[in-house]
Design a protein that fits this description.
Blueprint (H helix, E strand, L loop, with lengths): L31 E2 L6 E2 L7 E5 H6 L15 E6 L4 E6 L15 E5 L2 E2 L13 E8 L13 E7 L8 E11 L6 E12 L4 E12 L4 E2 L21 E15 L2 E14 L5 E9 L5 E6 L8 E2 L45 E2 L9 E15 L5 E18 L9 E20 L3 E22 L13 E23 L4 E24 L22 E23 L2 E12 L2 E2 L4 H6 L7 E2 L2 E14 L4 E21 L2 E23 L2 E17 L10 E3 L7 E13 L2 E12 L2 E2 L9 E2 L2 E12 L4 E8 L7 E7 L5 E6 L4 E9 L1
Parallel strand pairs: 6-9, 13-19, 16-18
Antiparallel strand pairs: 1-2, 3-8, 4-5, 6-7, 8-9, 10-11, 10-43, 11-12, 12-14, 14-15, 15-20, 16-17, 16-42, 20-21, 21-22, 22-23, 23-24, 24-25, 25-26, 26-27, 27-30, 28-29, 30-31, 31-32, 32-33, 33-34, 33-35, 35-36, 36-39, 37-38, 39-40, 40-43, 41-42
């Protein structure tokens, strides 16, 4: 019987260029990738690439775009809003500013369409053909902000081979006191419509209850912030659809038009609270934050002095004096006497917690035109437009004290146009092109002082302490890359991109009247709310000429062994901060708003080796990063700004994929790196010397593995699968304080799958997060505001059953 295991190494491919028949059925099939803007065998590309097929993505239980990071060592996640806004971190390259005027340093693409807004990196994954994860700078061919690398999702396309599709239904339950359920329905249908036109439609619907059980009003400090407060958190409803038409009038021309839409309705971000306490030096400077000792009641620890009833980090909120309390209300608690009832487990008490409070909505159109010229040169045009909207909320103290909430909203559009030519001669393969990008973003960010809140005694409460920022980016670039065969086994690659970057920026920081807990920054700003001269405004612009480049040698030492080494220069354009009020004032006002481009020079070498007649692949790489003006996000008090610091990173990665016998598949991979961001101050204007620190969301060691065995049984095939992902500890605040660190973790998943003989039916029993591990994802240090840190964890253990029909 032919081996149909989805994890047979050949199923990693985007296109199977060597069909398996007869005696060849156990050989490793070729994996075709487009990492260099043309189709190549994975083992012939001198780039550290991890590739997953659509079948693998599904078998690994990937539902959201960022889930794949757990199976790709060297790739992690960062972001904010307790996972509702998640970005990729690659080899320690990350930047977790929570304002959506930023672009991430690791680019994400869907069908060669750039996802320009940071929020857009969080999306539902469905009907995917494959995804390619490229590590290291990719600025020459992909260009846009890919200093750390990029993630490229490629969807299934229409074809002319007949009608095909699938319907997938899954139900599950989270193992928490909330007894939260999850339901997912997904499907696709594709067919030839005429001899020259084919179409495909796909959809996905997900409904999930809140898994974070809310015990509010337990320990309530003041009245609720509005009707419906105190809901369970983690719930969401997602609706996504994509439609694609393929036009192929002849064998030289192909045009593809794709429309996509996605909307999510979400609860308040599912953060929890842990009590923390600041450590001050003799001059009152915050030098560390630690987990709250069980018997401590002081606001902060300052030797044998006053216990810290003074301002911290330039915050406008004064512990003790500001809220009229002599000390914390309970030993080991936050400022207001709250201690999470079960620590890291999924029960808490929070007031600013609403069901269906937030949303994200995106739609777009992508047009891909390919035409073969008479000279044999391939012309490609990619036109992409996207529209983004969101409004997300979190409770700043993640506890029952009605203090402050944070909101993040965006209304943005992006338009990209790429023209590209690909060609080859006897000894060269080349690509050249031009690229244009426009991003028009309006960002609404800020702090909400709701009704009944501690700030309710202020003259204008309830209010929104709002930040409204407009940023328009226009970027123009030309690029080219050539592979030249010096000999039959030695190839030189050279490439470059020239970029002209134009930005226009407007900022308003103001206090607005607050009408409810579901809307922000409405009405006119309140004049002189901060004193004479407020609101604060700023208008600025920038114009920069940037460049990236690549020089590399690939040596095919044997048919089964590729050795490569090269130098790669990546760049991410400078931009502007849109900080919250406290961060704006604490960082120096207008002078803190602009920041410079970051430049990364990467030195990397590696190998790709096939063994055992193609049944095993072993790929490895080592790298050194030299960063100038790395864009790091320094969060202090209750806000932060992006600043420039030099940095360096060195590390290594290893991936093994093997099918040692029919039906058995094994994948193992690991990544290690050591990264340092240099001369980071404790805060802007701190009298203490700056320090070298670790970047945020950058575990030094990661590992992942999978074993799957499939055999004939029950009139079809049975497969049992187990996988794991390990992450070392990591900081979530650039100041690297002791309390601002998540512990290492290992997550295990397992599944049992039955497939019918004709592969049309598939039934799956699965357990995600088998040991119910508390794996930290995102956090914020708010020790000077509430005597606590916000922390969020990956979803708890999930039991699920799924049924799939393919035709």
């Amino acid at each position: 019987m032919k081996n149909r295991s989805v994890f047979k190494l050949g199923s990693l491919c985007a296109a199977l260029t060597v069909p398996l028949t007869g005696a060849a059925q156990n050989l490793l099939e070729e994996v075709t990738v487009t990492a260099q803007k043309r189709e190549q065998n994975l083992q012939d590309v001198g780039i550290a690439i991890t590739v997953f097929s659509g079948d693998q993505v599904r078998a690994l239980g990937v539902q959201q775009s960022f889930d794949i990071a757990g199976f790709t060592p060297g790739v992690h996640i960062s972001g904010n809003i307790a996972g509702q806004n998640t970005q990729f971190s690659i080899r320690g390259v990350t930047q977790n500013d929570f304002n959506d005027i930023i672009e991430a340093p690791n680019a994400a693409y869907l069908d060669e369409g750039y996802l320009a807004v940071a929020q857009a990196q969080t999306f539902a994954v469905y009907d995917i053909e494959r995804l390619e994860i490229l590590k290291g700078p990719q600025g020459t061919l992909f260009g846009r902000n890919a200093t750390g690398g990029l993630i490229h999702y490629i969807s299934n396309k229409p074809n002319f081979d007949g009608t095909e599709g699938y319907l997938d239904f899954q139900v599950g339950e989270f193992d928490t006191p909330a007894n939260a359920n999850q339901m997912v329905i997904e499907g696709a249908l594709g067919s030839a419509l005429t001899e020259t036109v084919a179409g495909r439609v796909a959809f996905r619907y997900k409904e999930q209850d809140g898994y974070l059980k809310n015990l509010y009003p337990d320990s309530a400090f003041l009245g609720p912030p509005g009707p419906g407060a105190g809901a369970d958190l983690g719930g969401q409803e997602d609706k996504s659809a994509r439609g694609t038409l393929l036009f192929q009038p002849d064998d030289k021309m192909q045009a593809m038009v794709s429309l996509n839409y996605s909307k999510s309705e979400l609860s308040t971000g599912p953060y929890q609270s842990k009590p923390t306490i600041g450590i001050l030096d003799e001059n009152g400077e915050l030098i560390n934050v630690i987990d709250m000792p069980a018997d401590e009641t002081r606001f902060t620890i300052q030797g044998d002095q006053d216990g810290g009833a003074n301002a911290i980090d330039g915050s406008s909120f004064l512990p003790g004096a500001g809220i009229g309390l002599p000390s914390r209300l309970a030993p080991g608690a936050d400022f207001f006497g709250y201690i999470d009832p079960d620590g890291k487990d999924f029960t808490f008490s929070g007031d600013f917690a609403f069901e269906d409070q937030a949303f994200t909505e995106t739609w777009g159109i992508n047009v891909n035109l390919q035409y073969e010229l008479s000279s044999g040169v391939q012309f490609t045009s990619i036109t992409d437009f996207k529209d983004y909207e969101k409004l997300l909320f979190i409770d700043v103290d993640a506890a029952p004290a009605n203090q402050l909430a944070n909101y993040a909203g965006v209304d943005a559009t992006s338009f990209t146009q790429e023209f590209r030519l690909n060609g080859e001669t006897e000894r060269t393969r080349w690509v050249a092109g031009a690229f244009y990008l426009n991003i028009d973003t309006t960002s609404d960010n800020g702090l909400k002082a709701p009704v009944n809140s501690i700030a309710g005694s202020a003259p204008f409460a309830p209010v929104d302490i709002g930040v409204v920022a407009d940023l328009e980016t226009n970027s123009y670039s030309v690029f080219g890359q050539v592979d030249y065969d010096l000999t039959e086994t030695l190839t030189l690659t050279a490439g470059a991109r020239l970029i002209q970057e134009e930005k226009d920026f407007d900022l308003l920081i103001a206090i607005f009247p607050s009408f409810d807990s579901f809307s922000v920054n409405r009405g006119e700003p309140i004049p002189n709310a901060f004193g004479a001269g407020s609101p604060y405004t700023n208008t600025d612009d920038s114009s920069d000429t940037l460049w990236t480049g690549k020089l590399q040698l690939d040596w095919h030492y044997t048919e089964d062994l590729l050795l490569y080494a090269g130098i790669n220069r990546g760049v991410k354009a400078g931009s502007f901060n849109a900080p919250l009020l406290g961060a704006f004032l604490g960082a120096g006002g207008d002078e803190s708003l602009p920041y410079d481009e970051e430049i990364l020079v990467s030195y990397e070498g590696g190998f790709k080796k096939s063994f055992a007649g193609g049944m095993t692949r072993l790929n490895g790489t080592a790298f050194y990063y030299d960063y100038s003006d790395y864009q790091s996000f320094l969060f202090v008090g209750v806000g932060g700004v992006v600043q420039n610091n030099d940095a360096r990173t060195y590390g290594a990665e290893l991936e093994l994929q093997t099918s040692p016998m029919d039906g058995l598949d094994i994948m193992l991979s690991t990544a290690w790196f050591d990264a340092t961001v240099k001369d980071v101050p404790l805060r802007r204007g701190s009298p203490l010397p700056p320090r070298d620190v670790k970047p945020t969301y950058a575990p030094e060691l990661q590992a992942a593995g999978l074993i799957r065995y499939q055999w004939p049984a029950l009139g079809g095939d049975l497969a049992v699968q187990a996988d794991f992902s390990y992450s070392d500890e990591f900081f979530y605040n650039l100041r690297n304080f002791d309390a601002d660190k998540f512990d290492s973790y290992t997550i295990y998943n397992t599944s049992l799958v039955w497939s019918s003989t004709d592969s049309q039916w598939q039934a799956t029993l699965a357990v995600r997060n088998l040991t119910d591990e508390r794996a930290g994802t995102q956090g914020f240090d708010l020790a000077s505001l509430c005597g606590c840190n916000e922390i969020a964890f990956r979803e708890p253990r999930l039991y699920s059953v799924a049924l799939r029909y393919e035709f």
